[in-house]
Amino acid sequence: MFKTAAALAWIALGVVVSAQQVAFDVGASIRPVGTVSLPGNVWTRYLADITSHDAFVALRHPRFPAHQVRVKKSEFCDPTVNVYTGYLDVDEGAKHLFFYFFESRRNPDSDDVMMWINGGPGCSSSMGLLMELGPCRIDMKNASSNGTTWNPYSWNAETNILFLDQPVGVGFSYAEFGETIETTEDAAKNVHAFLTIFFETFSQSKGRPLHLAGESYAGRYLPAFASYVYDQNQVAIEEGRDTLNLTSVLIGNGIVDISMTWRGRYEVECTTASLEVPFQKISTCVRQKTALPRCEKAIRESCVDIFDAINCRAAVSFCEAEVSAYYESSGRNFYDVNKPCLGDLCYLEVGAIKSYLDDPSVRALLGVESPGNFSSCSSDVGRGFNVHLDKYSVPSQFYIAGLLERGVRTLIYSGTHDWQCSWPATRLWLDKLEWTGAVLYKSQTFRDWTVDGHKAGEVRTAGPLTFATVRGAGHMVPFDKPAEAQAMVSRWLAQEDLQPTEVPRMSYT
Ligand SMILES: *[C@@H]1O[C@H](CO)[C@@H](O)[C@H](O)[C@H]1NC(C)=O
Ligand SMILES: *[C@@H]1O[C@H](CO)[C@@H](O)[C@H](O)[C@H]1NC(C)=O
Ligand SMILES: *[C@@H]1O[C@H](CO)[C@@H](O)[C@H](O)[C@H]1NC(C)=O
Ligand SMILES: *[C@@H]1O[C@H](CO)[C@@H](O)[C@H](O)[C@H]1NC(C)=O
């Protein structure tokens, strides 16, 4: 089943180019050892043309002369669909971004395309793949001979899906000369180049609705990435080029407006927001509540209204010490108040995923060329972002408002047992968000949404914005509530209300 590690040859792709076509040139491939000419022209290139399991096929695009995509087929994870893995080589091959692509289980030739990104900053999207919403899950029970089990609740049920390890330095993505990316706005450029090359190269994807999905720090990443895609689309229109059909953004337990972080945690610990009976000591709740106004004032003045790096860092330290520290010393799971913290990042799956992805036979199956072992979350990347205070320096909610004003559908969903990026914090920042639909949004009440007749959570919708809770799920919603998460995504992709029996919703304009 597993391929031997040996021969991952570098192969450059020669393409027949006719006069009026934009050329995908063979280019100076980074370390070419041979050339393969595929039949047909570039505009009818199908991923299905890529049949090699042992060697990458390299694809270049004239508009991104410093970039190239290398892709191969893989027997990884989901035997029911075509699976591809590869690298986007950035900056003349100095940086390499690793991706996994799974075709849809329904209709790969017409279903939408989704890209999933995990957070951190610095954590690998293979965590989402192998623990949450991917076509297979890490095998924790030694039930299979291949290290994974097939996931019937995978989000590729109805959409093609890409998992991208980004920025460089994360997961299997790496740099030849140690370069790093240390801000979300810089990372956006590589993601946009990746998506453009991908969609323009594989013509079956062209014009297909694109959904950007992710969780946690993706609440900072995705609003900026989607906004960059949107703005670049306007440039493309002016220049008569194809656009990316940016259709929606999905953010699970995201960090967006940071000013509500600590009030949200207080509510989780000291009210019935998460559990029926608050679990924190009353005396601790009183201390936290007493500190909150000062915490929030400092955050507002030094991080939000005007960003001042030194004062903002001091404000964050104050809030962490006076509000977060009690929970952090409790031994509870940061991502699920109802669970103990066991293993790396509080989940035994995390260590198992690392062992699995470090296995030489799995690396070979994926075509991994990254030097060094896999790490779930890169501390170097995390440190780089922290140096720039990336989490605080640009208000992510301003990007969200910008996208909503332009009609980009946005699904914000939250597992209610998360402490880290809690659902009350999300409820509070959405109430405070300034955009044209704000009045309508606030006039809506939460309605229950159900899956198979059981309540899954509550939902509130206004125009392009939907906020849904998933009751009883932690930070990683599809991990805890796979059926509910899959139903939510299915309804979202079909542009249905999350609770389909509800009366038609009002227009917000
Ligand atoms: C791995 O094994 C499990 C259980 O035996 C099976 O369901 C799954 O399809 C296998 N995965 C692959 C990629 O062959
Ligand atoms: C997993 O199962 C195989 C047989 O299917 C066995 O040889 C192996 O020792 C088991 N590993 C663990 C960690 O239990
Ligand atoms: C984007 O996708 C939608 C839904 O399939 C489609 O109606 C629309 O024409 C597409 N837009 C572009 C620019 O391809
Ligand atoms: C990578 O992991 C293997 C197996 O656990 C270990 O032997 C090796 O020392 C590790 N390499 C690095 C560079 O950490």
TrEMBL record:
PROSITE patterns: CARBOXYPEPT_SER_HIS, CARBOXYPEPT_SER_SER. GO terms for molecular function: serine-type carboxypeptidase activity. InterPro entries: AB_hydrolase_fold, Peptidase_S10, Ser_caboxypep_his_AS, Ser_caboxypep_ser_AS. SUPFAM superfamilies: alpha/beta-Hydrolases. Residues 1-19 form the signal peptide. GO terms for cellular component: fungal-type vacuole. It holds the Pfam family Peptidase_S10. It is an enzyme of class 3 (hydrolase). One of its GO terms (biological process) is proteolysis. Keywords: Carboxypeptidase, Glycoprotein, Hydrolase, Protease, Signal. Its EC number is 3.4.16.-. It comes from the Eukaryota. Belongs to the peptidase S10 family. This is Carboxypeptidase. It comes from Polyporus arcularius HHB13444.
